[in-house]
## 1
Amino acid sequence: MAKKFVYFFGPEGSEGDASMKNTLGGKGANLAEMCSLGIPVPAGFTISTDMCTVYYENNRNYPPELKEQVFENLEKVEEVMCKKFGDVKNPLLLSVRSGARVSMPGMMDTVLNLGLNEKTLKGLIKKRGDERFAWDSYRRFMQMYGNVVMGVDGEHFEHAIENVKKKNNLKTDVEMTVTHLKSLVAEYKKIVKKYTKKEFPTDPMEQLWGAIDAVFGSWMGDRAVYYRKMNDYPDKWGTAVNVQAMVFGNMGDDCGTGVAFTRNPATGEKVFYGEYLINAQGEDVVAGIRTPQEVTIAGSRKWSESVGISEKERKKKYPSLEEYMPEVYEELVDIYHKLENHYRDMQDIEFTIENKKLWMLQTRTGKRTAAAAVKIAVEMVNEGMISKDEALLRVKPEQIDQLLHPQFVKSEKAKAKILAKGLPASPGAATGQVVFNADKAMDWKKQGKAIILVRVETSPEDIGGMDAANGILTARGGMTSHAAVVARGMGKCCVSGCGAISIDYKTSKFTVKEEAVKEGDWISIDGTTGEVILGKVQTEQPKFEGDFDILMQWADERRVLKVRTNADTPKDSKIARDFGAEGIGLTRTEHMFFEGDRIKAMREMILADDEGGRKKALKKLIKHQRDDFYGIFKEMEGLPVTIRLLDPPLHEFLPHEPKHIKEMAQEMKVSEKKIKEKINELHEFNPMLGHRGCRLGITYPEISETQARAIIEAACDLTKEGVKVFPEIMVPLVGKSEEFTLQKDIIVKTAEKVFEEKGITVEYMVGTMIEIPRGAMTADEVAEEAEFFSFGTNDLTQMAFGYSRDDAGKFLEVYKETGVLTVDPFVSIDQEGVGQLVEMAVKRGRKTRPNIKLGICGEHGGDPSSIDFFHRCGLNYVSCSPFRVPIARLAAAHAAINNDIVREIKKTMEDAYGTIEGAVKSIYKELEKRFKKN
Amino acid sequence: MAKKFVYFFGPEGSEGDASMKNTLGGKGANLAEMCSLGIPVPAGFTISTDMCTVYYENNRNYPPELKEQVFENLEKVEEVMCKKFGDVKNPLLLSVRSGARVSMPGMMDTVLNLGLNEKTLKGLIKKRGDERFAWDSYRRFMQMYGNVVMGVDGEHFEHAIENVKKKNNLKTDVEMTVTHLKSLVAEYKKIVKKYTKKEFPTDPMEQLWGAIDAVFGSWMGDRAVYYRKMNDYPDKWGTAVNVQAMVFGNMGDDCGTGVAFTRNPATGEKVFYGEYLINAQGEDVVAGIRTPQEVTIAGSRKWSESVGISEKERKKKYPSLEEYMPEVYEELVDIYHKLENHYRDMQDIEFTIENKKLWMLQTRTGKRTAAAAVKIAVEMVNEGMISKDEALLRVKPEQIDQLLHPQFVKSEKAKAKILAKGLPASPGAATGQVVFNADKAMDWKKQGKAIILVRVETSPEDIGGMDAANGILTARGGMTSHAAVVARGMGKCCVSGCGAISIDYKTSKFTVKEEAVKEGDWISIDGTTGEVILGKVQTEQPKFEGDFDILMQWADERRVLKVRTNADTPKDSKIARDFGAEGIGLTRTEHMFFEGDRIKAMREMILADDEGGRKKALKKLIKHQRDDFYGIFKEMEGLPVTIRLLDPPLHEFLPHEPKHIKEMAQEMKVSEKKIKEKINELHEFNPMLGHRGCRLGITYPEISETQARAIIEAACDLTKEGVKVFPEIMVPLVGKSEEFTLQKDIIVKTAEKVFEEKGITVEYMVGTMIEIPRGAMTADEVAEEAEFFSFGTNDLTQMAFGYSRDDAGKFLEVYKETGVLTVDPFVSIDQEGVGQLVEMAVKRGRKTRPNIKLGICGEHGGDPSSIDFFHRCGLNYVSCSPFRVPIARLAAAHAAINNDIVREIKKTMEDAYGTIEGAVKSIYKELEKRFKKN
């Protein structure tokens, strides 16, 4: 028997089903599935993806059986649709579409109305009685086919239309009469001849095979090949070809076309929601030339109220489908229930009504807002439609970010003028007056102004100004630049690395091309898209209801990873705790040295010539530090708090600009020369690889001692007050176990001294960051003394790749374009490279200390795909900025579910199947089993 | 039977031998060995290192049997020496010394004359007839014992001496009479009482046990513990105690003392060479108060000629030992022959003559100059004394560096004033006039002046000036700073990171404390020691003869690793080839862009706004590049040459100082603003991790294309001329295999184009640097396309440790002091950490490409201990700067020999022994077998 390459589908059933995506492609499988459900779908057939492989294996030739099978199936379509392909009386017209197992850009799109020629055209006119409709259909078909199948540049056809309109003084396409269209068809024929040296095919069968060839040919088109390479999809997959009978919604007032959602895609509310147009084609609904009408009466009334139309007028001019064609509406309602129940998800459906007959053209899972996703998922569990696991997977972790930050009011945003685009560094929207320096930002804030801080780049000196601003815009720096990291930590909107703006601090303005924006001018920035907008745009806080909390509880029940937060202040700690953080994974102590008088004492320490001088200055700082820790510990009562000892190089605490140096000199009563000398002495060529982290604590043990003392004193004081505290003291930048041991000695000795002084002891841990490749590789030695590891994957990525995150912007874009990188490794952890270091450190750390606590506090701690990796590595927790805590909770649940599934599937496969086909089937069944609520 | 803790040695034989270093310590084992050879050594005994362990295990108590064994052995000593310990008539005096298995600072030194008290003193006077000698001996004993054993600060004793001299108006110690010495002894007693609250012990046995306690106690002294920790020596080793009879060379004219070398330690010549003093103690020879006389007649004559003394006067006043005591001399000659033959190496011996009786006090392997080491090693092979392997091991690779660079004339250096000390960045000595900028250095050079270029730090702009200078001195930067690396490459002397000097470019001077050195002043620098000297010091080129070549040939026969060089010019290539380089492992192409007009074209490329502009500028460079490669290929005819594509970030090619920016603007006819903007645009926070290496080649493919073209064109041209070339094109900074593949594509396509144009093909390879941790970890993927790896261990170290080599100076010193690092990882590869990356890349690279060629071109390629590691890793070659090629050749031979030995020892051990003792014995025997010439 010849191999089966063609699969029929039609209103009375089909040869395929939804499980056959690999053979029929996504579209084909879905059409077949709908048919199997008894839903009226225009008949058609799918040429399988296997054919594509055979086609290429045979040097772009088809096996003889294909023609036969196509012919047989075409006959079946003719029979079902009661029309004949190429018939001059009642011609069957076809659509031809590509369809691989996943949606793939670069493949051939649709060819409609295939089968038309001057003869069948006459039949169409006779049958339908609408000459203009027929000629316009023919003209459209030629244009599509000429372009997509025959490869003629679309511009030539557009140009011909323009000429006709110009010549006849027409303004729009719809003004073209049959005469105009006829002349256009003649012109199109000439164009095709000119550019392809071929006649436009008039034989319908030739047209059909031409379209099939074009679909298979597009599989090896440059863009498709490139896309597969990028996504690591094998060429062997192939594409299917879907050939389907045309139906028309534009043949009179008993015709129409529409789209609908089974639930509200904006709010998630369980109401049928859709729009339709009478006597129109599918594309007319989308094009927005005519105002579509509502499908339901309820929807229609709501609409008429909002635009101020009386119920009488509405009923007359804009009746709902429910009113206009009640039988069709009833059928549609039946179908949508069937589809939603069948696919167990909100569906986005397309339908056409041809002479009162309802045809379904598409059903697919509907896109929805974050709020809708949450509501639908939770309600479907309550309805018994899906399991909690599936509900969790229905909401993308990244999506819920929308629910946590202010957004622009949509209608306002639509009117805005977009000035430039930078990197979407920290989500949310903000509007305010432009200010170029941190001090002024703080002043203006006090005056009650809304501010956007605009800087070439930010440095720790700007923290105060960043805190005062509604949003931050920088001209330089990537997704993990100082501005981006700090802003995300603050939950503040930030657009970074906006290279298009050129800032001139001297004249207090920035320019984008010709546009100049001065200090005090209003701008708005969107940290979710990276857009910079001229003028004010109103923002609103998104609301979410109880469903969100329910979903997050389910996530918490399901996840294995704990979720902590990175927080440096009691305020941030509270936000994070409210978001569900289970402790602090990283408190950076350096930010604490910038506020108020502290920076003065810090600078005094840096300028000191000896240990004595440093100790004197540190004494001034210790009270502040202790108060900071006291506040944070109190806010996190009962939860662990990891505090990192001083990390950045000391030069970050000194001023850079002459004006500030002068101020500092006056304030501290030292010469400017001395300050400049110190700045010079501390200058580093590569500060990222310089005198920082535990290297500071080893050269100046008194710094570590002071910090340890502040931590332990605060912990003791709170313990006395009955507050439970769990301090975890973290030594940064350890590359050799000796570094850690030296620092631990200081910490332990200091703690013991404090315990004696306070007459109380507190449980505490001492551990380290693993952020230096060497530290990861020798983790077994480090773990002999370290009680916990926290992976600093930012630095680990910088050093494993040799990329400075502040500078990598210069080549990361090119790297993505050329395919060297598929994703920014600072956004999502590089599992193949940097991941090896994490896995190595986990394994080796546990070797010498089996119960070692393992976490991650780099930026990757809030990235879902990284969280999946950390789950698989077996870490105990991830830590991320407060506003990402809910995202991490959900992502951790996803990781647990997905990895359980993978494990079970693997087991099932190993148990039961030996073949690829069998494996795929088993995966499908397993998924079905898990997701179908029993 | 009680355990044996005490081992006797004496002129008639001993209980121990040289193999028992672990039990007897180094000193004890050597004394025992000499005795066994029948050499006259004052009798004594050694308390074993086991006792030390027992002592500490028993809370600092001795087992009862020790007293017994010490007593027995003391009796034996008395018998042999015909004196009695504590006897009032003929007292035996003892020396007590510590002695662990390796020489170890911080342990107790010597106590001499032990056994003296007011009674035995009288016996000594009676027996020896020299009252002053006796009282002086007593005073010295009290001072030593009081300090070393009883812990009284030595200053108190010195102070007492000063008081006596002041009171009696004496200028030197020797003027003190018996009366003075007696009063001093009385004073010493008071001092001891005051500071220890104890009487000075008068009982000789009490003195002896006090000294033994002190030796064992010193094993746990802070310094000794610290030193062991640093060197990873276990506490269990313990120290031995050596108790030996005193002999005196200062009891009259039939007494004397001397030191001698069995061969000349300066030249290696096979002549007996030594000095002695009549009626003197050992320390007098060293102290240099009296002029020592020569041991041999030949030596004595040579000396008298050099100082202009007649033969008559010489014979009378300064007779040689050969003339003065011919019998003793004969005996000494016999002994030295015996010792050299026994130890099979040049010996440094100490002897004392007491009343015409010769006593040997020490023999040890003599220190020697590099030239002597080479000569002695080669001659001993010719004499049949040692094997070639042993000869090779006798010369330390680092040592021969002395033979390759100019050195200060010793006598001149002795008079020099040392201003400051920096890092010994590039060996050799240089003298010249101070110049502070590169342009002036080149001008002055043209005027025929000798120059030392002094800079805060150097940058690629200074290359011309560095080349013009005799030596380079920088205030900042470590052993692998730009200055250091370039200077070593040039074989030019350099002192870097000399923090003590403060440079003021404006006034053209530098200051060290109060001293100011102006432009044009003469200074001298020693790149081997790091010394900076005020004024001119004459230098000389060390000479070496045929022996050196012979030794290097033996090394070449023995080594497995090939040795290549890092060279950027035909000149350097020639030097390296003359030194034995077997190819070039690294040609940096960036240096080529600084000379003459090239920098202009390079800057034009950088300033270009688009690919077209860049290509235009590159066209100007290609001819120069081709000529460069032509010259290098020709010089290296028949050998492989690895060329690295452009590596440094582009900003390095732009000027930094306003003056130079102005010049560039005028020259290139562009605005200063444009240049400044470009500098600003290219500025990087961490250039080491920035836009460099293959990241440049990927963003600007035209650069790689141009370089590949220049290489292949030069190779084709030479091939046509019949010159054999083997180009290896190297892509720098690869962290992902995709980076390499993209660059390789460009190179291969370009090469094919050139082959077609030239009508000839040339064999070539395309490979990569492994210098990014991620590149090492994913080496299996990289090796799928890369034909060779060259490890860039400088960058690999920077990134694995997270140290910027330019900045690490700020903490590396502290790290060494605190024991975090035992060695600078930029000098010697960190085998535990960075080494893992190398091993990983070797293993994974060979997995996907078994015949991959592996080399290393980082600075470590010239470091002997790193070479040993690379040998063990199984690399194919190491590459180092031209002047280190001979060192690397020798080190590679060492690596081969040592690893063969280790392998054989391991095998022997595994075969034959199960115990530690057995293993140690087997090692010793194996070494003996290998090194004893059959």
## 2
Amino acid sequence: MDEVFRRLDDIREDLTALYKDLHAHPELSFQEHRTAAEVARRLEALGLEVTSGVGRTGVVGVLRNGTGPTVLLRADFDALPVLEQTGLDYASTQRATAADGSDVPVMHACGHDMHVTSLLGALDLLIAARSRWSGTVVAVFQPAEEIGAGARAMLDDGFLERFPRPDVCLGQHVFPFQSGFVGMMSGPSMSAADSVKITMFGRGGHGSQPQNAIDPVVMASATVMRLQTVVSREVSGDDTAVVTVGSIRAGTKENIIPDQAELLVNIRSFDERVRERVLAAVRRIVRAEAIASGAEREPEFEQLTRFPLLVNDPDATSRTTGALRAALGDHAVLDLPPAMASEDVGLFGSAAGVPTCYWFFGGTEPGRFQRALAEDRVAQEVPANHSPGFAPEIEPTLTTGVKALTAATLEWLA
Amino acid sequence: MDEVFRRLDDIREDLTALYKDLHAHPELSFQEHRTAAEVARRLEALGLEVTSGVGRTGVVGVLRNGTGPTVLLRADFDALPVLEQTGLDYASTQRATAADGSDVPVMHACGHDMHVTSLLGALDLLIAARSRWSGTVVAVFQPAEEIGAGARAMLDDGFLERFPRPDVCLGQHVFPFQSGFVGMMSGPSMSAADSVKITMFGRGGHGSQPQNAIDPVVMASATVMRLQTVVSREVSGDDTAVVTVGSIRAGTKENIIPDQAELLVNIRSFDERVRERVLAAVRRIVRAEAIASGAEREPEFEQLTRFPLLVNDPDATSRTTGALRAALGDHAVLDLPPAMASEDVGLFGSAAGVPTCYWFFGGTEPGRFQRALAEDRVAQEVPANHSPGFAPEIEPTLTTGVKALTAATLEWLA
Amino acid sequence: MDEVFRRLDDIREDLTALYKDLHAHPELSFQEHRTAAEVARRLEALGLEVTSGVGRTGVVGVLRNGTGPTVLLRADFDALPVLEQTGLDYASTQRATAADGSDVPVMHACGHDMHVTSLLGALDLLIAARSRWSGTVVAVFQPAEEIGAGARAMLDDGFLERFPRPDVCLGQHVFPFQSGFVGMMSGPSMSAADSVKITMFGRGGHGSQPQNAIDPVVMASATVMRLQTVVSREVSGDDTAVVTVGSIRAGTKENIIPDQAELLVNIRSFDERVRERVLAAVRRIVRAEAIASGAEREPEFEQLTRFPLLVNDPDATSRTTGALRAALGDHAVLDLPPAMASEDVGLFGSAAGVPTCYWFFGGTEPGRFQRALAEDRVAQEVPANHSPGFAPEIEPTLTTGVKALTAATLEWLA
Amino acid sequence: MDEVFRRLDDIREDLTALYKDLHAHPELSFQEHRTAAEVARRLEALGLEVTSGVGRTGVVGVLRNGTGPTVLLRADFDALPVLEQTGLDYASTQRATAADGSDVPVMHACGHDMHVTSLLGALDLLIAARSRWSGTVVAVFQPAEEIGAGARAMLDDGFLERFPRPDVCLGQHVFPFQSGFVGMMSGPSMSAADSVKITMFGRGGHGSQPQNAIDPVVMASATVMRLQTVVSREVSGDDTAVVTVGSIRAGTKENIIPDQAELLVNIRSFDERVRERVLAAVRRIVRAEAIASGAEREPEFEQLTRFPLLVNDPDATSRTTGALRAALGDHAVLDLPPAMASEDVGLFGSAAGVPTCYWFFGGTEPGRFQRALAEDRVAQEVPANHSPGFAPEIEPTLTTGVKALTAATLEWLA
């Protein structure tokens, strides 16, 4: 394996430059045109069969190398409406027009640039080592992961019919732990996440005459308080769910009772049964609180995003973990508990009916992480994904990401 | 008195034109430059001593007519950021830049245009009838009543020192009841109103990790629910108070816990002791709910506006009521209960230590009002002040307003 | 009138002894057998036509004195389950079995003993002065006022058919203000009061497994918080209502989730429309909060007591007030605002379709009252009705009560 | 091992009779005099060194058998104030005086009678098989487990100094799963449980005058709602905590605002850090809600019971599990997740600084359990501990309990 990895020394400089370029040019979900073009150009240069525009802006590269299983390797490539504050010399200064028409800053605040670079690096190593394996690699560069829509879009665009059907789906995500390490999760691994916009309707009026109005501020506030009981009373201590009202908005003037209120709610769960119970409880409570206020119109629910539960196949994870231990050293492979974060990568495996193994690789400079750990201040000191200060330390993060993907793929194809 | 009123026939056409012009050209608080100039021009034409720029945009006209008492007559002249939807051919299409920099529509949605026109008409009648009275009339055209700042600004600008000190302060407001009628209130008549902006501070975080955040959505919602107890538990059934949270705002994304929440609160009361208890209770509750959430920073309170309680002097009101009964007929003078609405007119009398008498005059077309009354649908069918459909029926509203002011003034000066 | 009142000097000692005896022997609602017997005995001694057992334990005495109108004079005579703590040498040490079977202390904590004594005294004076008036007096000694059931019981027992139909209904209640004074109220004078027992049903379970239970503690608590909005949001500042949850009870063990919760709610109002809106809002909220909790069974509502709104007829009150001013002196007759207290006396007038005039007479020792007033500590220092320390100062309370009833009656019959 | 177990056939009848006798004669915590006497009598008959009155009513038997390690075997023997509704012919009809002086029914609703019987049986088998092992067995019959006080009382009574110091602590609890099976948990296995009585102080008053009172019903209800946020917002999805308000009590009359409210709160956790955060949050919220109400007196907290977290030592559990698999068959030994139930057995091991292994054994008749499982109605159909219908099916529960304890002990001493 060391021999396979040696090729990395030849391409590291190029990959680093690519990473910095991607980082400086982030693009919002389904707007990843520049990124997709660069990916497609490089896949072609590597000799893969390349298809662009899969699921709007997705790119698929197929690398055939004789008979054998098919491994799907997935990297997502969209960025976020966050104003970068890393201070890096390759920091983003990009802005874009968001889906709601507003002008927003854009930043690779979730490390998808590192995912793309690692996958392109791994493909290069696999090609260089093609004599050591046989089978097919399907490299998936997925758009719009951040809004939970990209995997679904690619599948709806005929992905399973148009490209070789995988036997296993692999992928990885950079995360705020020590760079150089990978973290494996088995079974239910990343939470299902449902985002719902709830509009509750009152009746507007003058602030001095509440008796002629139906106050949506009170209605929404009572609802927020009642929603706390979903987790506190309806979810077993053995199960896990989080219900967050991330936004509440009603009214603009102190002396005008507005006519509606809006809640944005995010729901996390690790079990479909729990998820359904929680969603039903949220709907039940919202409707009942509207009744309690005497609302004349039913609340409206709009599903904003839906991320499925990510289940790592225990056997596939065990096998992949073994390969990563061999490749990176036992010490560098951690067992992690399920993460209260969400991903749509699992849809590929679910749709194909094959196992998924998705892991984390660390992105935090080792010294910084160790200091924060010693002081029990990791949450405070280490910028997390989606924060304005989040950016993986390029090395050894990139090397680890390339090696991990390469080794995992070879495990299935060698 | 009929003789005095006869002059109205000569000027009604001009007053009507003036009213329509003012209605079509509303101006926001402290931006009433065009209105002030027109008022000053007319006051000068009537022969009064005119001072402009009192309290930024206010105008004062003094009419001296021999020895005797001094009567202050007050009309306010600012408009509101409301998009007019009356369908009138003289409806406003004006827009202006609000204090917060935003571009807003402007409308005379509170009838101040009718107040100005009525006062100018009354001054004309009083001049025509100057042989019948002696004393001094101080005509006050006040800016910025809508934000509770104009009377204070004029007083702070030396009003009491620069102009003859009044013996009584009179004024009137158009209201959504039958045109042709006036309504008198005695004692505490219009509520004190305090508007407060409250900012509560949590700690932001990812929606999936509430344990690392201090959720301001929950903090603010709990506060709204608790604030309901101020009126339900801390105000006697014999007293009156209204506490309205007109706006609650926190967060923008469903999966991000924001770091603060903002409440806009409006408090009405009819008694200083009740007012102080309510304000203290609001502060106590807000602070305690921040503590309950474990907030690391105290909530902030910003007083947005403050309207004083309007107390009509019972004797002055009784005397004025008698005059209006004589002038308009007994049937046209109603006794009204205190109004849950606010005014800063009372500051003039309080500052001077003299009685105030302030009354309402109806603005709704009689047939429309009677039909609504018969169907018990006044609240639904008759547009109230501040609503986009509010506009007084010009006649007999204007005639009633002019007559009422004239008759009341003559009562004190004849 | 002084001549009429002179008779009081002859009977004061006897009345005082009667009062102390009644005070020492209080009886619960519908258990007033000893009191009723004593009343009947005295009425017979006075020569009235006496009927006992009207509405279970009520007593009616009819005093005919020629042609003329009929005046109903009403005194209630039941006591309360309160442990007397007055320290008086004639304090009650009685106990009784309450309607729920429990053994309770009994006390005349609402002064009905004074009502009985005053009415018997007034009847004596009226008989002594029978040459000065003609007509009929119907003396009503009513049971079970405290539970709002006695007037209804007497009416249901054929009161209007069995006894001369009144032209006016008069009565009085001792109240914690200065003895020697009476207080008059006109129009809506004493609140309607509805008491409701609400049972909310959850599903019991182990405290560690809320997911298998439906928590009635949370359900009831959310309901209490929501009920605060009835007064704060659904009752106009111009109207008056009080909604008090006087008791909440659920569960007995910390680690057992109980299966139901009980709320005892008291609702006061001064207007039938407000009353109906408030009652409907309470029911709506209770039902909705049960739905919000996912309750499997509808909440149950049981009306415990219902006191009607007492409306004093303005003309009858004006006339009676004049008589009391003449009899007691202008200074001794106060105008009082409506009282947030309840009475069923009004049912007699409502049923007969005739005016009611019901007033208060002070029971607090003058010096004590004046000191408390000076210190603004009346609420703290003067024991109110229903408190363990409440007992009218016998004089001048008794004299005032007798005189007031006598003078008021003569006003209608002289 | 089969040979060791054969002895059970000789004593099963006697043990069954003992079990029925214990079941019919349950005793409350620290009142286990009859039970303790019977236990002591039997231990002496078996030839152990017996000490009674350890920790008030506890009994310790020491069985010495040569050199070797010391194994502590613990059975708890108190019962509960529950009215038995099993319908068994040996059902309890006992009553007793509870700590608060009330007369209550008593029932072995938690199976401690089965624990005692199983331990006595195991001691018999161990004595019969004494040639197969060497070392010391300390048999602990603990009082007052139900109130979390017995283990502490025995330790405070010099347990560690007075008796041979254990090398490992073993014990077992009957649980509502299939009889014949045992269930093992490793690591944090049974929750810490803190029970707190909270008294919140308002100011009483008449229900019609809330402005003169401080309403403890509202205060307590707001607190209950806010307490829901402890679990929903302050406990990570990765952690486990349950906060149950099992009882809320305030007031007795609908129209009297009471002066205090009482909450009984039960808190479960699996991690000391989580426990401390939750307890601190509960105290913070209770205090803040008292402040929000303007309470004049601080809330009071009384710790009712405290059960520690039970941590099964992984190595000891692994070793014991192996022994039980060998003795009962692999199929009969289940791996269970941590239980949201609490025990004070762990205090012995903690105090001695040695490992604990505590397991469950099933008590439900196999057919009944299988049917319930098939219908997914275990929670509904199988009576759980502390319920009036809970009683282990004597066989094979007793046999399994004796075998499991015997086999586990031999594992450590053979």
